[in-house]
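Researcher: Next sequence.
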Amino acid sequence: MTKKILALTLLFASQSMAAHNLSVRVGLPSYSDAVTSDEMSGSSIGIDLIDTSEIYGALSGGGHLGANFIEHKGQTYELKTGEYYFGPLAEINFNDNFSMQVRLTLSYIEAKWNKRPNQYSWGAGYGVGFKYALYNFTLGVDYQPFISFAKIDDINRGATYNHVLLSAGYRF
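Model: Next structure:
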């Protein structure tokens, strides 16, 4: 799955004449289960493989791979995440260095829950990000809520994720 995200990212990136941005993101994810109403929170780390802009003149995309570590009732659960995002659906440039973007996010999650087999789910949402660029270096903050859908223990479950991310990167 992660290879597909990378392949899509590189395919779109190859069509772009714009700059790319490679960055590392750390974040604070929170999770709410629609069936049990359990609330969980934790930490995350990931890497944006490539972040492109102005693909085909308007649309951009990027790929992100990461791991989330969610704490709940004294246990840590690991969620591997893959994201592919499209955008900006809207962009505001406040000046040459500071901008805001709104993106559409498609997500894939592989979760390890206790001793069960790995669970998989798909999700969709949006991202709102602010980015500051100075020379070739970038700093950013993103808010990415999304809803995921999975079948766990023969029950169709939905979950809501809220993710606040800080990033540092390099444009090339």
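Model: Helices lie at 2-14. The domain at 2-171 is CATH 2.40.160.20 (Porin).
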